[in-house]
Amino acid sequence: MSALLRALTRADVELVRQWREDKETRAGLRRPDPLTVERQAQWYQDVICRPESSPHRYWAAVVDGQFVGQVSLESIDPHVKAEIGLITDPAVRGKGCGKIALGLLLAKGFDEMGLRRIWGVCYASNSALGFWDKMLGVFGGVVMADEDWTETNTWDGQEWPSRRFWFTAEAWRERRAACQ
């Protein structure tokens, strides 16, 4: 199996826009509002084509030649921390592509960018909650607070609790073989 991160193309971001329309995917997004083709194209021009103007970095996750997801490190504090983002093609859910994409992203952040911590938030409304719980175990991540549920998010007219978690460079170095 081959896997890599590469630059996002305009065609990739249009696919991601379509994936965001999947109800299960939208339930896990911080901003679940639908994206128009125009808004996505503007985001591509403003963020992807001008990375120096943004504290966020995005890549395409490719497994066996197939674009399977968009991964990101956002709100980057150089050599310190960043927030993780992961959106996968609904067609590859449960097939191991998310784990592979996450391993590639952690390698990018820790090994190439020198980050010490990569953190994230997962809402209870997100069907990927089980995935994140499993990945916290695989890659040595931890929940940020004594309580599992640390804040709430309103989506689809309901309040949903959310879990904050992080991965560390130290744990990554100890467990990086888990992504292979």
Protein described:
The model has no long low-confidence stretch (mean pLDDT 83). Strands 1, 2, 3, 4, 5, 6, 7 and 8 form an eight-stranded mixed sheet that branches. By secondary structure, this protein is of the alpha+beta class. It contains six helices and eight strands. Helix 1 (10-20) packs across helix 3. The chain has helices at 10-20, 23-26, 37-48, 97-112, 129-139, 169-175; strands at residues 3-6, 57-63, 66-77, 81-88, 117-123, 142-143, 151-155, 158-168.
What layout of secondary structure does this protein have?
Layout: E1 3-6, H1 10-20, H2 23-26, H3 37-48, E2 57-63, E3 66-77, E4 81-88, H4 97-112, E5 117-123, H5 129-139, E6 142-143, E7 151-155, E8 158-168, H6 169-175
Parallel strand pairs: 4-5
Antiparallel strand pairs: 1-2, 2-3, 3-4, 5-8, 6-8, 7-8
Helix pairs in contact: 1-3
Structural key phrases:
single chain; 180 residues; alpha+beta; 34% helix
Order of helices and strands: EHHHEEEHEHEEEH
Distance between the termini: 10 Å
List segments where confidence is low: pLDDT < 50 over at least 5 consecutive residues. Answer: none
Strand content bin: 25-35%
**Approximate helicity band:** 25-40%
Summarize the main sheet.
Answer: 8 strands, mixed
Oligomerization: single chain
Tell me the total number of β-strands. Answer: 8
Mean pLDDT: 83
- Rg, Å, rounded: 16 Å
Q: Number of helix segments? A: 6
Shape: globular
Structural class estimated from helices and strands = alpha+beta
